[in-house]
Write a structure and sequence with these properties.
By secondary structure, the protein is of the alpha+beta class. It contains 3 helices and 3 strands, in the order αβββαα. It has 2 domains: 61 residues, no CATH class; 78 residues. It is flat.
Length: 163
């Protein structure tokens, strides 16, 4: 019974094909070499396997109506319009958020530089080889570099807002 309904629906949508775009998805159930079921919608995966059609879905997408002659593109789209005051307010909120993040990132950068300086002044007895000192300091240098890049990116974002 379900297959008959699907066939009727497919026939109906085929008749309405000029008014809508169609997409038919077929789901197959196959068995792999170990006997486990494999479900696929790719017809190529069924080659050389014992498969049966399990489901056929038809997705219908209505076509868009062409714009009337003489109308502006985007006119009558029904979408919300943003006023210049709302746009300025949103831009100001975005600037406030970015400046707050910049302040926080600058504080983290200062703390990271302080930690690096503190670690550079420490010499352990087991670090006779300078490579070990560099290895110990590398995470602190990486942390400083990360915060420097974040500060630079935030400053660049804020300058882009001013344009």
């Amino acid at each position: 019974m379900d297959a008959r309904r699907t066939l009727i629906f497919v026939t109906f949508t085929a008749c309405a094909g000029s008014a809508a775009a169609q997409n038919v998805t077929e789901i197959y159930k196959c068995q792999d070499a170990s006997g486990r079921p494999l479900y696929t919608s790719d017809k190529r995966d069924t080659a050389g396997k014992k498969c049966e059609l399990v489901s056929r879905e038809v997705n219908v997408v209505p076509t868009q109506k062409p714009a009337a002659a003489g109308s502006k593109p985007g006119a009558g789209s029904g979408g919300p319009r943003e006023s210049s005051a709302a746009r300025a307010s949103a831009k100001e909120r975005q600037r406030d958020i970015l400046e707050g993040e910049l302040k926080n990132e600058e504080e983290l950068l200062a703390k990271a530089k302080e930690d690096l300086a503190q670690q550079e002044s420490v010499r352990n007895g087991d670090e006779r080889n300078y490579a070990r000192v560099l290895e110990r300091l590398q995470p602190f240098k990486d942390n400083v570099e990360l915060h420097e890049k974040n500060v630079e990116a935030l400053r660049r974002e804020i300058s882009n807002l001013n344009r």
